[in-house]
Amino acid sequence: MVTVIRAAAGIAMVSLSLPAAASTTLSDTRSVGMGGAGVASANYLTASFHNPALATQNKTHDRFGMILPVIGARVYDGDDLHDRVDAFQDLNDQLASNPDLEEQWRAALLDLDNDRIDGDANIGMVIAIPNRVVSTNFFVSSNVTAILTTDIDESDLENKEIVNSNAQGVVGGTVDIGFTFAKEFIFLDRDLSLGISPKFQQILTYNYQDNIDSFDDDDFDFSADYVDKSAFNADLGAAYALSRNVMLGLSAQNVFSQSLKTNISNGTQATYEVKAQYTAAFAYNHPRFTVAADVDLNSKQPFKEKSYKTQFARIGFEADAWRLAQLRLGYIHSMTDYADDVITAGIGLKPFGKFGLDIAAMYGEGDNYGASAQLVFHF
Q1: What is the extent of the structural domain holding 288?
Q2: What is the model's pTM?
Q3: What CATH number does the domain containing 333 carry?
Q4: How many domains does the chain contain in total?
Q5: Rounded-to-10 torsion of CA 320, 120, 108, 96
Q6: Mind spelling out the 3-state secondary structure of 262-306?
């Protein structure tokens, strides 16, 4: 388990060291292509990532399915903070031998105040065995969030010496290993599916802080300094077929709140929090296309000490070509000021019916790019 999240954390931290990388909402690649929507539109294979109740949504010919693996990453650095930190450090090295750079040095330092880079990464897999009694999935899902922030102390501007101005990188993530169980009932002459995903959860955190003149992302040492703990958690879900084509969905992920403090780095520490996330959704499913919309009912603030929080509304579209290929489009609208809107696109290829490859990409203003990919097997 630790190996899985180390890999995901590595992706997130490498992403933060680049000027651009990936998404705003990550789970399975199909949903990434559809703007992250999935609480009412996921299939039986991807239900464990969105809404456990949808594990009942298999076709009559589906007997066994597998996603192995799904992988994705994203980072947002809209103001080129990484490059500006490098530029300031170059100026700082030159200042001692060239006093004429003093005003330029002050301006470059002040320009770094209260800035941020944030990123996410995920790795996962699913094995699904649908049936009429209780549809069952086994899943592994690793999700990591990383945030880099800068804090400039104005006293350093006058002293021309970096004493209190700093940069801090924090990482928090979970590895979920669990089973999804879903059952379909008749309610008011319509199909009602209820699902639950009890899961063993490994939580890991990491913190690295240093003065802004010496901060170097190459010094991140997650494998040596991370803090971890184990917990039990669960996801709950419901899906109601309002008509033959219309599905309503409601999910609650991580219903048991958890928190974990990071390691101490230069006297600083952060608290990673795992709290319940509630999402309501709608989907119109036609044999040839699907239209879906998800709305987060509450915001998510991964680190207690950081004001950074996210909440999204998502819309997605998928067109199916005789089950051989699928074209996907989506749009993610940020409901907070800490993220930007993103457009997404993806394609699914199943030329032989049993085996498929899904890929997706996303784009937003500034340095906001992303990608996701997964291999899918149906039997």
Answers
A1: 2-378
A2: 0.90
A3: 2.40.160.40
A4: 1
A5: -130
A6: CCCECCECCEEEECCEEEEEEEEECCCEEEEEEEECCCECCECCC
